[in-house]
Amino acid sequence: MQIYRIDHVAQVASDLDAQVGRLEGLFGFRRVRSWDNPGEGVRGARLEIPGSHGQAWEVVAPAGAGSALQTWLDDHGGRPGLHHVGAEVPDLEAARAELESRGIKPADGTGGRWIEASLSPPEHGPGVLFRLRGPGGLDMCGDSADASTEAVEPDGPSSSPHPPPFNGRAALDGSSLGIVALDHVCQAFHDRDELARWYRDLAGFVQVWRTPEDEHPDMADLVLNIPGSAICWEVITSRGEDSFIDKFLERSGPAAHHVTFEVANWDAAMAACERYDTPTFDDEEGVTDGAAWKHTFIHPKHTGGVLVQLFWEERPGVWVRSDKIPPS
Q: What sign does the CA torsion over 116, 120, 121, 127 have?
């Protein structure tokens, strides 16, 4: 099976307009499409991520009676969160057959336009949910042409000294985080090498970075490139006693742990967090090859259910990530 492009990352929200407003305001995303499809049980919006050409962020919310998204929210205690990663494959039926041969039974999407499955080794329980489509179709989240609605244009710059409300019309006035790219999605797993081999054999993911086994006291990681996509895939695994990753795996299984964005200006990004009353935690900074880097996290309760990591680097590649390949 070949994944040749990541299309989007999708999160579930109970309040679509509030979440879109948060993404337009603090994150500086731009809504490019909206839809309302009670027949498929979903309302949604597609947002453009600055610097991430071809990869988008989608927000979906329940619509109509018996929505599967409402069931998802109920199963998660009403908490919003990351729902799936949308990707394209050259042959949808070939992808289905490959998954079934590995003991994974995909669920069929509406009208057979896409399939949905956890792509992690099934013996370890559900991991990150992927939604796969073949060429020739664009509808993956109920966003068919007849369900499209006109997107609300954001207001112009605000003169108010107070943060604009998260109401779906937040101002794009230069006060956002200044995101320039969606860098990677991170998944927790009990053995990073096992998951890396699985993704390589299943879908051609290529390892480009790994930390030495003893670099961190509580974790080790590696980064995989997804051929054809700017977005990469990080795998983190626990080390030592009382690792935060063990706690995460016990609570959530081998799920997505966080999503990482690059920002253009660190001080401006921190000012945006202050403007939007959004605290950060686990700040770190350092110097590599004479160039500075910094990173921090935003808690899911301030992002609509997704742990977000932000990083800045003075020169490309000095912060350990997808484009830093260690010397052989």
A: negative
Q: Which residues, at least 6 apart from 322, have a Cβ–Cβ distance to it below 8 Å?
A: 183, 184, 208, 209, 223, 225, 232
Give pTM, 2 decimals. Answer: 0.90
Q: Are 161 and 173 in contact, with CB atoms under 8 Å apart?
A: no
SS3 at position 274:
helix
User: Which residues in the chain come in under a pLDDT of 50?
Assistant: 154-172, 322-323, 326-328
Structure tokens at 26: 């603090």
- Say if residue 103 is exposed, middle or buried (CB neighbours under 10 Å; 0-12, 13-18, 19+): exposed
- Domains present along the chain, CATH in parentheses: 5-144 (3.10.180.10), 179-313 (3.10.180.10)
How far apart, in whole angstroms, are the C-alpha atoms of residue 317 and residue 265?
16
Minimal CA–CA distance to 85: which of 108, 111, 62, 56?
Answer: 56
Where do the DSSP E strands lie in 214-324?
Answer: 219-225, 232-238, 256-263, 281-288, 291-298, 308-313
Structure tokens at 77: 């205690």
Residue 82: closest CA among 167, 19, 144, 1: 19
Residue 112 is predicted with a pLDDT of 83
Task: Give the pair of three-digit tokens for residue 69.
Answer: 């998204």
Distance separating alpha carbons of residues 290 and 75, to the nearest angstrom: 48
Contact predicate 318/289, CB 8 Å: yes
DSSP assigned state of 223 = E
What is the rounded CA–CA span in Å between residue 314 and residue 7?
Answer: 29
Closest CA to 94 of 135, 138, 140: 135
Distance CA 186, CA 220 (A): 12
For residue 266 the two structure tokens come to 């660190």
Structure tokens at 29: 């995303």
Q: Which of 310, 258, 304 is nearest to 24 (CA)?
A: 304
CB 319 within 8 A of CB 311: yes
Cα(214)–Cα(239) distance, rounded to whole angstroms?
8
